[in-house]
Amino acid sequence: MRRGAGTVPAPLLVLGSIVSVQFGGALAVTLLPLVGVSGSVALRLALATLLMWPWVRPSLRGRSRSDWVAVAAYGATLGAMNLAFYGSLRRLPIGVAVTIEFIGPLVLSAILSRHVRDFLAILLAAAGVVLVSGAVSTPLGDLDLVGILLALTAGACWAIYILTSRRTGRHFSGVEGLAIAMLLASVVVLPLGAFEAGSPLVGGEALLKGAGIAVLSSVVPYSLELVALRRLPPNVFGILLSLEPVVAAGAGLLVLGQRLSPVKLLGMLFVVAASVLILGAAQGNTEDQPAALDV
Q1: CA–CA distance, 45 with 218 (Å, rounded to integer)
Q2: 127-146 pLDDT, tens per residue?
């Protein structure tokens, strides 16, 4: 997989990641009633770790302090991002949750951008996020403010994830850093999941769904993104991810039967248009892209 991914264009790797993670998210919605938020995250991370370690076999010896700082920050971000996002999935349709979550990469792109066209695209995407959140057409009292806040928190973690993933990719070869980060996140989240879910956490249905989510939402997308981020500036990567809301809406419809209103679908089209606009600018300005921020 690592050899093959190295020959595939980076944007296609990101697209594959998007499709995989959103169908994994739709499957996660069916797991949440069984084991709760932390239980679902614990299964996802722990099973993904068990699947990855025999394949990756990361080396732990001879690592520098900066290596451990990078991978620990990456692991902490993975855990926090998943807890916040799965919390939002309990309250919001998956397409809405993902679109609001995208505000994180959007803000990151604004911070890293140097071109006027980029900012116009960001404004267009921001308008799309407002439409899809329901803030325009829904009375304030009817909005699920907790769900929106959780999605925004997941978005902030998503932006940090982009940076920490890129930094981890510089310190570790292949996907070694990912495997170590997922182990660290699992060690923290698994006790929380066991406390919330109890015995259903190790039930047959939960384990089967958890394994599917681990592959679709963790192993495949994180591996593809880690490789892609070695070749893509983080602002371009962030805008590419703006396709996630549309894919999420499709997954929600196909897997969960969730239908969105025309206003929310219009908001998603705004986000996609912003993605097309910014990528057109990026193709002509690859040499001017800003360097990644280090955290």
Answers
A1: 7
A2: 887 787 776 666 666 678 89
Of 98, 116, 104, the C-alpha closest to 277 is 116
pLDDT at position 281: 54
The token pair at 160 is 């940090």
Residue appearing with tokens 């993975």: 78
Q: Kindly write down the DSSP assignment for every residue of the chain, as one continuous string.
A: -HHHHHHS-HHHHHHHHHHHHHHHHHHHHHHHHHHHHHHHHHHHHHHHHHHHHHHH----TT--HHHHHHHHHHHHHHHHHHHHHHHHHTTS-HHHHHHHHTHHHHHHHHHH---HHHHHHHHHHHHHHHHHHTTTTS-GGGS-HHHHHHHHHHHHHHHHHHHHHHHHHHHSSTTHHHHHHHHHHHHHHHHHHHHHH-GGGGSHHHHHHHHHHIIIIIIHHHHHHHHHTTTS-HHHHHHHGGGHHHHHHHHIIIII-----HHHHHHHHHHHHHHHHHHHHHHH-GGGPPPPPP-
pLDDT tens digits for range 199-229: 889 888 999 999 999 899 878 887 787 788 7
Q: Give the span between the Cα atoms of 221 and 14, in whole angstroms.
A: 8
Q: Percent of the chain having pLDDT more than 90?
A: 29
Q: Name 177's Cβ contacts closer than 8 Å, sequence gap at least 6.
A: 58, 70, 71, 74, 168, 169, 171, 226
Cα–Cα dist 35/117, whole Å: 45
In this predicted structure, the answer to whether residue 289 has a pLDDT above a threshold of 50 is no
- Taking the C-alpha atoms of residue 247 and residue 219, their distance in angstroms, rounded to an integer, is 19
Give residue-wise pLDDT tens across range 20-70: 988 998 899 999 999 999 999 999 999 989 988 888 888 888 888 898 999
